[in-house]
Amino acid sequence: MRTMDGIEKEFAKKSIPRFDVGDTVDVHVKIIEGDREREQIFSGTVIAKRHQGLSETFTVRRIVQGEGVERIFPVHSPRIVKVDVKKKGKVRRAKLHYLRDRVGRAQKVEERIGAERVASAPAASAPKPEPPASAEPVVATPQPKAEEKKAEQPAKK
Predict the structure, then answer these.
(1) What mean pLDDT is predicted for residues 56-70?
(2) Using an 8 Å Cβ cutoff, are 76 and 56 in contact?
(3) How many other C-beta atoms are found inside a 10 Å radius of the C-beta of residue 57?
(4) Burial (Cβ within 10 Å: 0-12, 13-18, ≥19) of residue 85
(5) Is 17 exposed, middle or buried (0-12, 13-18, 19+ CB in 10 A)?
(6) How many CB atoms lie within 10 A of CB 99?
(7) Is the per-residue pLDDT at 135 higher than 90?
(8) Between these two residues, 94 and 1, which has the higher pLDDT value?
(9) Is 14 exposed, middle or buried (CB count within 10 Å of its CB: 0-12, 13-18, 19+)?
(10) Which residues, 6+ apart, have CB-to-CB distance to 117 below 8 Å?
(11) Can you list the domains of the chain with their CATH numbers?
């Protein structure tokens, strides 16, 4: 155990949001303007995460008016209100710095199909109700084969 672990423990957030590199996220940041306080949303793709106790950070990149903008957020910062995961990304790298050189559609990260979203996780799916027992089964009528259809049509001259 490090000497600083005891001190860092009291400043660490109790619940850390679950997201990975490649995910598209909305980071809600607390902004103080004069005597007012408001919440600002920074949307983008997580291109890097750095794990190291209280100084754990993540980098979010987005394009604003044709320019790439990156912000590095400390995970345990009191100014980070929440992190919403919009899309789970399908990536094979720990750092996505190569996205800085890409332009247009090449910057898009493929979405992981079937991944459940953390922010809008659906409630436990209830079993589907069975149809009433009194319902009569539907019987399908057989369709005529293609050869039978040709025989029925008159020949063209």
Answers:
(1) 93
(2) yes
(3) 15
(4) buried
(5) middle
(6) 19
(7) no
(8) 94
(9) exposed
(10) 85, 86, 87, 88
(11) 5-104 (2.30.30.790)
Query: Which 8-state DSSP code applies to residue 132?
Result: P
Residues in the chain: 157
What is residue 148's DSSP assignment? H
Element (H, E) at 32: strand 24-33
As a whole number of angstroms, the distance between CA 18 and CA 85 comes to 8
Q: What's the rounded Cα separation, in Å, for the pair 47 and 28?
A: 17
Q: 55 φ, ψ to 5°?
A: -90, 25
| 13 pLDDT higher than 80 | yes
Q: Which residues contact 8 (CB under 8 A, 6 or more apart)?
A: 53, 54
Cα angle for residues 93, 114, 82 (degrees, 5° grid): 70
- Listed in sequence order, the residues at least 6 apart from 72 whose beta carbon sits closer than 8 Å to its beta carbon are 57, 58, 59
Supply 128's token pair: 């589907």
- What mean pLDDT comes out for the span 124-132? 52
Q: Which pLDDT score, from 0 to 100, does residue 122 have? A: 39
